[in-house]
Description:
Elements: E1 5-8, H1 33-42, E2 46-52, H2 63-78, E3 86-90, H3 114-123, E4 131-134, H4 137-146, E5 149-152, H5 158-166
Parallel strand pairs: 1-2, 1-4, 2-3, 4-5
Helix pairs in contact: 1-5
Amino acid sequence: MKHKAVFLDRDGVLNVDNGYLFKIADIQWIAGAKEAVGYLTKLGYKIFVVTNQSGIARGYYDHKDVHLLHDYMNSEFAKVGGKVNKFYYCPHHPTKGTIPEYTCTCNCRKPNPGMLLQAIEEYDVDCAQSFLVGDKETDLAAANAAGVTGYLFTGGNLLTFVQNIIGQG
């Protein structure tokens, strides 16, 4: 059976984008972000975070830091009945890295669709019943390349935004 899914960018959609977030103490939630994940979970959506994390390539933080932050985020979502099924992140940057193995061109860095395509394959996602919420044109380009409808979030309350997409706002 195919699953409906929501793909969420992280920085600028779930949390305030203050640049290279990796410390739990530094997270500032977007209004309605936790509630939006809870709401979507209760409606039966698979939820995936798809996020460029070039801070790894730049040497600002490592994979362990990203996993600790994502585990914390999921524990906060659980408090309102939400669950991110999987966090996908791209550690690469084509030119600005200081860590050689992550300084490269890849298929996972948005606007490329690699993270979405991986989730679609791993979780048998029905693209026609799925959508992405991102705060940049590169997010929408990745969604389009993966065959998923993309919506540009420009601020406000994320719960209200997703309720309007689904038509229950």
